Structure of Oxidase EvaA:
Amino acid sequence: MPLADLERWHIEPETGNIGHDSGKFFTVEGLDVQLPEAAVSSWTQPIINQPEVGILGILVKEFHGVLHCLMQAKVEPGNFNGVQLSPTVQATKSNYTKVHQGKSVPYLEYFRDRSRPHRVIADVRQSEQGSWFHQKRNRNIIIEVFEDVELLEGFCWLTIGQVHELLAVEDLINMDARTVLSCLPFAGAQLPEVSGDGFRASLVRSCGEEFGSAHSTGEVLTWITDARTRYDVDARRIPLNQVRNWCRSDELIWHESGAFFNVIGVNVKAGGREVAQWMQPMIEPLGIGVVAVLVKRINGVLHALMHTRVEPGYLDVIELAPTVQCTPENYDLLPSAARPPFLDEVLGADPAAIRYETVLSEEGGRFYHARNRYLVVETEREISPEEHPDYRWLSLGQLAELLRHSHYVNIQARSLIACMHSLWSPQTAYA
């Protein structure tokens, strides 16, 4: 749909911002970014401002001693293939307070009524894409229930192992499910017995927080704090009609180069939703991105090479990102110094070194056909902090510990962590 024709949405005459008539949901605004030390030191862009904190929650329950997740087959307007597996609850505050005047969100009471007899396994606020959202956060919750739960149409119980196995299928486990699954602590996992120094053995050993880690968690926290102090980032919201190098018509908004992303309008008709029909703006990325982590066995323990990445929409300057996170085609238009380190190594990786590779969709509620190629690539390369000060080797146990806290590990890295969980045992049981 043309942006100018979206029902219940309006374009503010003075600013050009796009907002909902209710004043809820989200707005599309402009962002002015100043990053003096970067290869690209300043730019402006459209960005989604959605200050509400939504709920992403998975109910879990033991059946015959094996933990199961209650997953939902959910349609989102931006999904590449229609239905994907989502958390039990995936709802913004505007949705669950019924601003849309539609149906109630199923199972929401389990996550809001704390008087119920259940166990909280994880509960933490985490960020979303810092390149497209301005300081967006969602509450990631995993609740274990002990009573019988009515199984509604469109929902099913899957074991942890089944969910992990399905992470190998393209565009099936959605982004919101992956971020919640990444918060599932190793402390409750019945890790398999392993011996030797193979990839799987090193991966299982990596689940220990400090065991064999190249850097102590204290050293990692200091490194992150140093990066947040070192980078001088000024990201200021501006009227959408003041963004530079972007073009606008009644139909859409696009960058003059034809790269990066568009802002489009959509008219949605979907079953199994609280509302059967609505219109909205969306971000449409151009090209399939690459999200990859280099992993290495250090002292028999698998480590992931993490990057202190600056994105303009982050609440606290930087978050830990995968080794590579980009859309390669975009760098054809940018200075050569902006090209991400290790991108060529990932793109040219020997197939025998690729431990995981799948194309997965990003959030389908705000992004249209946003897809990334997720990879785990094993390397033997020596990478020193002196040579690459923005990169460090961390174990999975250390990343799991950081995930207990907000704004340390970004959404793309959380997806990869969920994918890496699936590599050490496809049929893991959690106690």
Q: What stands out?
A: Residues 426-431 have pLDDT under 50 and may be disordered. Residues 199-233+286-424 form a domain with the Nucleoside Triphosphate Pyrophosphohydrolase fold (CATH 3.90.79.40).
